[in-house]
Amino acid sequence: MNVSRDSRPASAASPGELPAPTASPPQGAVPAGVRSVRLTELRGAGVRPRPLDARALAALAANPGCRRRALLDGAGVDKAALARALGAPAAYGQSQFAIMRGHAFEARVKADGGTELLRLLHERLAPGSEPPAPDAVATPDLSAAGPEGRAARTALALRAATEAGDWALLDHPMLAVEVAGSPAYVEPDAVVVHPDGSWTVVEIKSFPMIDGSADAAKVGAAARQAAVYVLALEPVAGHVAARTGRTVRVRDRALLVCPKDFSNLPTAAVVDVRKQLATTRRQLARLTRVEEIAAALPADTTFDLRLADDGRTATRPAEELAEAVEAVDAAYAPECLAACELAFHCRTRSRQQGAVEALGRGVRGELGGLRTVEEVLAAAAEPAAAPGEPEGPEGPDDPAVLALRRAAALRAEALAGAAVPPPRTEEPGCH
Ligand code: SF4
């Protein structure tokens, strides 16, 4: 599921190859060269852009109000290294053991030309059709230089397989998707082409499926990733349909393959990604364009860590980096802790500012116009106005203020013992 980012257009594919389609630049967009220079400045001269993955894209789409993440991801800044340099390293991610176990499981699922994978897919998604013969599944070579070359090769392979009208298994195809005005390249575990011209995204995960069900949060995350892949496949499908004259459909039901129970035998389930697809599409479209965010920053803003010769140690003072990071608005929510490398830094800042967002989106919504913990406590402590007295801006009509005052009064009563009944001398019926 690796993803690469490149500021060059996908149309730079080799002559004769089908270019990987990306969204055309909107009117008034900053020229690619100018954008590329500014993004390089933000990252630091000579620093390679950090690849994203579909998980990160899904997380980005889940928090479209965060300009900070949009800019850092758009510029390809290594957020994990930045968090370390800020003194707030991320505390999530897979262990090396889990990664190796995942790779071994994926290799097993795809062994023998994907025979078992195709059997599972046919069983779950096309039970009434002719099953694919083991030697009749095309497994095109997708190797090419760079992400653009691989995306172009993938588009060619999808076109050839769709034209042929047979089963085909594309192992780690490369797809282009536009994120906040910058093209990014995502890599699903597999895409299967059906004889009817439809395409299915396959996600292979190492978490177990026990008695046919798996951890809902993990399945949800897999569905959001699959939605990113479906989104990236759609323009390719449009391209292939125009060139082949066939009806090409990207299925909105992905195949999730996991270890069965506590074994390492594969099993699969169909995951409906329509909801995630609609959400991701809407959220990615709403993301502010990276160059707009960059243009609003002081001209000398950069997230360059100024790495030492070992390529790992940041020599730039943490205060300077923090200043650069704070120059971009963030939208912290507790969900960031499971999705963004900067979460500990942003949480600390959010708490220092007393922002109610740090308490969660649900609480934030309940508190209406109250933006800080200080405002909330002040509203709760304010005695109710006497009849005829004017109220403040958050007057008695504000249900959040009324609820806070009621809660504060109940708490005061409870602490004063007024609401606590006197202890019983004898429990009735208890001897
Ligand atoms: S942790 Fe910070 S940068 Fe990351 S998404 Fe949350 S608010 Fe944005």
Automatic annotation (TrEMBL):
Full protein name: Secreted protein
Region ranges (Disordered): 1-31, 126-146
